[in-house]
Amino acid sequence: MTFHIITIFPEIFNSYFNESIIGRAKKEGKVALKVYNLRDFTEDKHKTVDDTPYGGGPGMVFKVEPITRCVEFIKRDEIANDESTRVILTSAKGDKFSQKTAQKMSTIEHLIIICGRYEGVDERIADNVADAEVSIGDYVLTGGELPAMIMVDAITRLIPGVLGNKESLEIESHDRCDLSDYPVYTKPNSFCGWDVPDVLLSGNHKKITTWREEKRKK
Ligand code: ADE
């Protein structure tokens, strides 16, 4: 799967995506990440990506042309109009991103994520360019870069072969809507008087499974 991220802060993505599980998935070719600087798709010498809103009001609005040009470039030159491409616009007023959304998106070949910024994005992007507006929660962030990273992270770990321990994904996805999990502990078994539950030290796997199931339900 390839993620195409459109942003005015391309440097933000490197450090996070080169580390840990995502970094390994990239190195192993399980996912690819391409970041596009929106300013490269402007046509004026100041590389202007935003302007004042029609009708007045505070703040600046992302212009329609650079984003449209960038999405068209990606579709035409980078992915040759692949059928399963989806274009997402990050927005606090979008549809809520969930584990279910992540599952669905993990089967897409190319996901283009437009990172919104400032007070908004010209509505013609949502109307004509993006397939969906997606929010990561009921709070307003300064931009779409963190939402993009969160979506890429949640989707990438669902791609087959990305998680080292296949089992951890299998167990977890037992009931795809039930995100609860059981508590886990590691050594030492006692620290400052805080003890690991006896059952986990018992070696009785049946009891451990029952205990975990109860905790999960709770
Ligand atoms: N941009 C600003 N806030 C956002 C949110 N909660 N989700 C997605 N994009 C956003």
Produce a short descriptive summary.
It contains nine helices and ten strands. It has 218 residues and is α/β, with parallel strands linked by helices. Bound molecules: adenine.
Question: Could you please describe the fold and organization of this structure?
Answer:
The chain has 218 residues and is an alpha/beta fold. The protein has 2 domains: 2-156, SPOUT methyltransferase, trefoil knot domain (Alpha/beta knot, 3-Layer(aba) Sandwich), CATH 3.40.1280.10; 182-217, Orthogonal Bundle (Trp Operon Repressor, Chain A). It has 9 helices and 10 strands. Strands 2-1-6-5-8 form a 5-stranded parallel sheet, with helices on both faces. A 3-stranded mixed sheet has the order 3-4-7. A hairpin with a 2-residue loop joins strand 9 (190-191) and strand 10 (194-195). The longest helix is centred in the N-terminal third of the chain and has 15 residues, at 64-78. It is elongated. The model has no long low-confidence stretch (mean pLDDT 92). The protein binds adenine. Adenine (ADE) is lined by residues 90-92, 116, 135-137, 139-141, 144, 147.
